Amino acid sequence: MKIAVCIKRVPVMEVKFAIAADGTRVEEAGLKYDVNDFDLWAVEAALQLKEKAGAGEVTVISLGPDNAQEQIRKTLAMGADKGILLKSDAPTHDGLAVARALAAELKEGGYDLVLFGRISIDTMNQMTGPMVAELLDLPCVTNVFKLDISNGRGVAERALDGAIEVAEFPLPALLTIDDGLNKERLPSLKGIMAAKKKPLDVKPAQLGAVQVAVRKYELPAERAAGRILGDSSAAVPELVRLLQTEAKVL
Amino acid sequence: MANVLVFAETRGGELRKVALEAVTAARALAELSGGGSVHAVLAGADGIGTKAGALAEHGADTVQLLEHAGFAQYNPEALAATLAQRLGGGTYAYALFSATAQGRDLSPRVAAKLGTGLIADATGFVVDGGAVVATHPINNGKVIVTLALAAAPALISVRPSAFQPAVNAKPLVTESISSATDPAASRVKVTELRAGGTGKLDLGDAPVIVAGGRGLKAPEHFKLCDDLADAFGNAAVGATRAVTDEGWRPHADQIGQTGRNVSPNLYIAVGISGAIQHLAGMRTSKTIVAINKDKDAPIFKIADYGIVGDVFEVMPVLTAAVKAAKSQG
Ligand SMILES: Cc1cc2nc3c(=O)[nH]c(=O)nc-3n(C[C@H](O)[C@H](O)[C@H](O)COP(=O)(O)OP(=O)(O)OC[C@H]3O[C@@H](n4cnc5c(N)ncnc54)[C@H](O)[C@@H]3O)c2cc1C
Ligand SMILES: Nc1ncnc2c1ncn2[C@@H]1O[C@H](COP(=O)(O)O)[C@@H](O)[C@H]1O
Fold it and tell me: What is the interface pTM, i.e. ipTM, of the complex?
């Protein structure tokens, strides 16, 4: 089974973000980067499917700056077979522009399965996977948290705002992976060494026309400081009173 | 003047609250661009037309009914083809979706079919010379970006709870439309649909959420949350990832960065530390209450009201007090 996984380099979120004075960008200084969480779960799913089948190849594709090679190497260290960087130094919020570039690369790959993350935690678009599916005319199931593939067909369970849908699909297909499917493995030392020798192709991304433009970035309004009402159930009457009179939610 | 097409989301043959929010947002968008028409697409099995009234009441000039057994469940392939066909004719400047699991599955497919841009998960918008200019939370909700899209049609999905349903009654006008493709021919077959969470009320629809964390110590202690939710009557129970990882509650109940994104009127965090991945899914709640025995727990930084205390001591008293308040009110 030939599997492709699309992964994105994203900032680690445990920081206080700063915005440039003119609002045109989020400051880079002090940011660390990692693979988007959902994409790690997608890579893990691909590795498990390959292991179960006893044969196959996992290709990891990322569109991003040169540094995104670090994130691709991490997934090669987990066990993916080869990487492709579609180089682009212009970060964009335009999901369709990214989807077109990824679709152009995926089109000729002859993949049985293409895996995406449900959402990238930086741009929070949650659109690239289904857009690529449409561009490649592939059957698509999003938000998958349970998966079984055998004999050229798949069964997936997906989360639909609290309801669960069980969907059957033929291969080739495109899936977007949600939290809950698996926990990603950590790269072993042996994996890290092996990853250095695995192929990683770098080529320019064909982003195409960008239709969604950034006007500005800003930090959200801070919530007003809250109040501690007390240190035991003695505070309950005051809480109920505030919920009734101040917050007006009771 | 610009016409807006809006997709009205249903579940189990009923309109969801987000559908009324989307129609309200569509009406606002039409007015912002000089007063165009709002057409709502309502898909479902035979009989779904009986639900059209609420859409007209919230500002839809026409309700386009896509009635077919093949739409009893969410059918993205046929829906995307049908919406793309309707949007391709040049009638509409904008198309609006709810930024729910369905809407965020459907809208990108339609955008890709049309080759047009999509702004997802908008929390507000204005119109600026034909372009829609919308705000959207990014970086786990820690930054807000303002995006502009001038494409025709421009696609936008709106975040649940960002627009409150507003009555703007129009006479009910319905029109039957047909599917662009055979709904039975979709390659992905849904074989089962079942409730995923534990509650009767979905987390996305509940005005009050009681969420439990590891501080509850064991799955059976979630009864404390269930009881408080019952006392409110209009509440759903959510959980942290620590809890869903342990298998105490199903994954569908998880709130946070990698779970559900919610903004209820009232969010009560019970034995939850307030990790940023949890806050990412609930920080936009209108009023936040936290009960935690550790006065330094980060949840208190974003809570409007906090009680530093033991959940096992505080919760029964709170439940009784809410019951009493409800029976008086
Ligand atoms: C990639 C990734 C994604 C994640 N996504 C999510 C997500 O979507 N949602 C999410 O919730 N988390 C998510 N997490 C996990 C998150 O980092 C935290 O680990 C998790 O939210 C902690 O859950 P908790 O607050 O229940 O548990 P803890 O952090 O263990 O907190 C328990 C709290 O209970 C309090 N407590 C204990 N006993 C009592 C008592 N008797 N009375 C009162 N208080 C008591 C403690 O003081 C403590 O503050 C994610 C993590 C990662 C790495
Ligand atoms: N620049 C990128 N390179 C590779 N994959 C991407 C990129 N952007 C998005 N994706 C994939 O699309 C998924 C959803 O991203 P998004 O639509 O941006 O929320 C991610 O989890 C990745 O799998």
Answer: 0.95
